[in-house]
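User: For documentation purposes, I need each entry recorded in a consistent format: the amino acid sequence on its own, followed directly by the corresponding structure tokens. There are two entries in this batch. Please keep commentary to a minimum and don't merge the entries.

Assistant: Recorded as requested. Entry 1:
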Amino acid sequence: MAQNSTDPYINPKDDPNNPLKYIASNSLTAVALFIVLNTAFIHSFWCSRYRTKWMLPLVIGEYCYAIGFGIRFVMHYYPDSMGIYVAENFFIVLSPCAFIAANYVLLGRIAKFLVCDEYVPLPLNKITRVFVLSDISTFLIQASGGGLSTSKNASVAASGSHIFLAGLVLQLASFLVFFSIFLRFLYKIYTLRPDIWMQDQTRHWFWDWRTLAGSLTVSSIGILVRSGYRVAELSYGYHGFLATTEAYFYLLDTLPLVIANLVYIPCWPGRFIHDKPTQEAVESKSSPYSSTV
């Protein structure tokens, strides 16, 4: 029996029950899952090898992110399942909050290691706590908004979308503030503490603390690109062209986050940061180059 040419289920873009408005590509999902999962495995090894428990948020987030891509395989075969979509969206959209938290913690660790805490606007324990709490808050806002947006009640779903968007905007704003503080931190060391800035110049780049600073910069830019994409995507709505085009998802969401995490494979923070600050940093605290903010 021939199908009716007006059948809305023939084309995923017209399917009223398909939240993605496309059929998820198993090939792209497999590539993403392979990279994310192997990155998580390597980071797990580094975490154990260098005893960097403070980087566990990154590792846990990567495994949760991998679960999201695993669920995406199921979505290929059940594109009309709202339950599967909600689970996939939960892990894919919210896991990066853990990546953000890891970067927040890393700034404090670098400042403490270099004994340059005077170049951050708040005491290290407080500034880390403030940003991590902001990350948790925006996570909860996004999670609650995402839950409400799946409601069958149109007004509740609309409110959920607005709450979700607010969480994304606040997260982006918070990370922009963090990134500005980090860049200012590097600038202050470069201009006021050349002794600290150049302390590893005789070492291979593999052991130069500036390499780690560069990695944090690259990771932060990746997160900012992804966050900006998510804000723009939801601004157009769940059925907007950004949300319903798989290429944008991989180009502006997955790829930036993959790069943001991959950069820590050759530049694992635990290799650069030890339990005690560098002797050079301690001795130079009272050097002629030392200056206040």
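Entry 2:
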Amino acid sequence: MTLHANAVALLENWRPDDFGQESLRQAYLGFLAAREDSCRRECAAGHLTASAVVLDASGEHVLLTLHPRVGRWLQLGGHCEPGDAGLVEAALREATEESGIDGLTIDPTPAHLDVHPITCSLGVPTRHFDVRFAVHAPAGAQAVRSDESDDLQWWPVSELPPDSEDLLPMISAATWRGSRGEPVGVRSGDG
């Protein structure tokens, strides 16, 4: 199955509890139907990206990166790569690369969607159709900053950095799924 077909199947099968998220899900599906290249960063009209809301083993802290190009604290994640089988694998790969943590587990059901304008690697304004997943770190995990970050820190979910209020819906959705005891499906290193 191609990355595009995988993204379509994932979003067709997901049923968000929130009307706004359902509306975005429908918009994503429309964009995917219109653009076969919608999962590739070369798609200048916009493209799907995969993010990871990395939570510690207790679910009380979230790992955020100080993004060098954006200049603010954000979740881990990024563009899909040609070798990614799907959005779940892309989010887990990005989380592992950007956190330096082995043994991350990802809930394969999307936690949150967000569309935002950005000038990314294309050098032209575009949009990211971001699909966000809840990811859990093993107990005692120590994050290691990669060259894709100016800083990397665990933040209490109740005390996020200044000017990060827009992250609250995403973090709330990820922690809510975890609090329901949803099963996790993929662990980094499982291949």
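Summary note for entry 2:
Residues 3-179 form a domain with the Nucleoside Triphosphate Pyrophosphohydrolase fold (CATH 3.90.79.10).
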